[in-house]
Amino acid sequence: MSETVTIAVKRQDKPHGGSRWEKYAVAHEPGMNITTALQWIAAHPVTVDGKHTAPVAYDANCLEEVCGACTMRINGRVRQACTALVDRLLEDQPDQITLEPMSKFPVVRDLQVDRSRMFESLRRVRAWVPVDGYFDRGAGPQISQDAQEAAYPLTTCMTCGCCVDACPQFNDKSDFIGPAAISQGVLFNEHPIGRFDADKRMAVIAGAGGIADCGNAQNCVKVCPKNIPLVQSIAKAGRAATTYAIKRFFHA
Amino acid sequence: MANGTERVVVVGGGLAGLAAAMRLAEAGVHVDLISMVPVKRSHSVCAQGGINSVNTATRELGDSEWLHLDDTVYGGDFLQHQPPVKEMCDWGPRIIDLMDRLGVTFNRTSEGHRDQRRFGGTMYKRTAFAGATTGQQLIYALDEQCRRWEADGLIDKYEYWEFLGPILDDNGMCRGVVAQDMFSMEIRAFRAGAVVMAHGGCGLIYGRSTMSMICTGGAAGRAYKAGVKYANGEFIQVHPTAIPGTDKLRLMSESARGEGGRVWVPRKPQDSRDPRSIPEADRYYFLEERYPKYGNLVPRDIATREIFDICVNHKLSVEEGRLCVYLDLTHLPSETHRKLEGILEIYEKFQATDPRVTPMKIFPGVHYTMGGLWCDFEKDENSGGMLSGSPRNHQSNVPGLFVIGEADYQYHGGNRLGANSLLSCIFSGMFVAPCMQNYMASAGGGSADDFPASLFDGEVDRHREAMEALIKRAGDENPYLLHQELGDVMTRNVTVVRENKQVEETLSKIEEIEDRYARAALTDQGRWTNQNLSFTRALDDMIVLARVIAQGALQRDECRGAHYKPAFQIRPPDADDAAGMRRQANEWCDAFAVKNEKWLKSTIAEFTPDGPKFSYEAVDTSLIPPRPRTYGLKGAEIIEDVWRERLAGGGPGKSATESGKEAVTSA
Ligand SMILES: Cc1cc2nc3c(=O)[nH]c(=O)nc-3n(C[C@H](O)[C@H](O)[C@H](O)COP(=O)(O)OP(=O)(O)OC[C@H]3O[C@@H](n4cnc5c(N)ncnc54)[C@H](O)[C@@H]3O)c2cc1C
Ligand code: SF4
Ligand code: SF4
Ligand code: FES
User: What's the predicted TM-score (pTM) here?
Assistant: First the structure.
């Protein structure tokens, strides 16, 4: 193993600004991940050409793939930097590792992007249980083990954005809410109390920017780090949208 | 809205901050919620194992809120004021019920009730859990509720905003905060009738810890420098089971042991055999052998010290060049592995070994800050808990500035029990809301609208000037490398085993780092999304708090909870005969009473430009008298016997009210 690893980072100083590539020779440590490499660059911000530069801007917090912050494109594939192990990346592509910001969101700076659109989608689909209040009302509804096991994977969605980054239908020209929000809509529609708001959610999921925008390319599910069954959620949402449309038709 | 002028700032959107925000919004108070990261990405997502409360299943076995209180204060080595802890334990069942109603996917029994597992420092299965990602599920539920209030216009979220300091008026009362937009670098003031700090812990002072990247203590340092007292700084939890990594230490939750995981080392030092082929007889399950009652579920400070002792003093580390012991889950059924999926995946992802078939290699890592910003409470003389709605509860010495969550110091004393933190965070967030409202309604409290713009503009200017000075600073020191040096020396000398000489050396080193910090220059002088600036600014706060921690550790000449100084340990009885043992146990108990007289006190640090000024404050132990904390250690039974006899005879610390009850857990 060589003592340094070449990391190429696509840098951009400002939103809407131009971008450029910079390369760094990062000291190799056994077991290191991409966030370690970025920390190393921050402490030694000099390119391979000897140019002094500013530390690379990036998001990261938990460093164990549970907060969703550090999503970026690594060797062209969208994923979390904290679980991207350098040695494993070098096996596939020995000469260098490339880091780019996610492709579907406005770049703030370097590898940092603005994902507020995803949170806005969660608001649109009303991804919450509409409880009366926070006073004592005893326990929640009894839930079978099967129902818990079905819901649990959906609740691990960390709004990281991998799925929408890979989705051909999600871009700045569409207002598609994306697979993550659809899946959250399904989660709350199946919750014993959450379902009281199901029609309000369906109005969004069946409306403009909703499920009809999904081309069923299934890219999303392949890149989801939490293995969330997005295609299954999308299928459920699709069926529910049809039922909802028929219901609306008869009530209109 | 109840009152048009009611407006508060919540600093931090972890469990504590979100719980406070949603409760305040429900009461019609307008909330400005400030967080360095989108709140959904706060450190609370890392919590794995679960959240404690008494429940129907444990009650069947004789459990009660009182026993939860008892376990918590015994676990904390009696350093916490008992009324707040009692209140928290009383609220426990209600908090879990609420989280259940909010849709948290708690694991279920076959009848559809919530399932529970056992955690450290208790004999009861009190811990409700959602797989091995409980913190993530809890914070998402609160995030969702806050989004709902956001849609209703009662919460304004300021994500990617960094708290720079509180704004105090001429009377020293808090009237708002100054914060900075981390993208545009705009600095502005937020006026508020009251402010609540919920910024979490400060593990990054130790370089690598199990905490998230923003857990620097930056916000704590800024509040402290503005005059808020800092309490029990030296109490830092080192978790027994973490996996060392190049960027952080990744936790292997206590739930692994709660579900039956066993800690062991080969009896033969560095036995090179495949661990799976080492027969039972050649394995040393040291926790189980030394603590037959609690076994692998002794509290964290004890498990950590034992692992240290095994590796360092007994030289039984599994590996030659690296300290580690086995945490073995291979004997557990796949059903159990499934409940632990979240953490097993983490191990697999980072270590490239399957912990279902090969024992994990783990070692202790810095994990939790028991200390924090000082805050008050008012005891309810009827219940023994806290007086509901009293503005004193969770209010710091700066009027109008409240503290909750890991940022405060109230609930965990000298050592936190596993799965009690998620509870204390949500509880303190829920509980503080009416206290803040009552404060705002009281004379002098309340609206910041009447204060002149000059108060707020002046503070903004001050922070802007400080930023400009930092950006322009020239020098040859690198803030990231200084941080590493700070982390290394703190980890080496102010964690598990503390020797005064080494702590003194650490203090000199901190002083050196402080001098060099004045020459730390930024490599990014830009005014857009300058993370270099944000980190370097926080480094100053880390240095200030490191001093509070180290100085506090130096002064506290005793062993209590996570603070362990071998030079001041009371020698355990080791005589050959029964009479000798009894005599020594009596001496032990005398020494213990003397030590409590002197040190059963909260450490209080106040900022001065020349370093922290220390004082000590009595601890309210009015509910459960302090007792020796042996956890049934083999050979220490005699201490418990002697202490019990003394108590029965009306000896030291006897409580009038509930003295009968403590016999239950020490039996
Ligand atoms: C790996 C791990 C596992 C754990 N597992 C458990 C468990 O199973 N059970 C249990 O009970 N406890 C557990 N804990 C402890 C528990 O997770 C934490 O104590 C708790 O989540 C802290 O919550 P909090 O709301 O106080 O702060 P945090 O969740 O840390 O939130 C802090 C908030 O403050 C904000 N903030 C910080 N500084 C600033 C600033 N300067 N300006 C603006 N905003 C700021 C952050 O953006 C964030 O929103 C675990 C801890 C770790 C590290
Ligand atoms: S199935 Fe395809 S089009 Fe639909 S959300 Fe997934 S990636 Fe996008
Ligand atoms: S569904 Fe998966 S990929 Fe999409 S945001 Fe959630 S966790 Fe990320
Ligand atoms: S830092 Fe949280 S997912 Fe990578």
Answer: 0.96
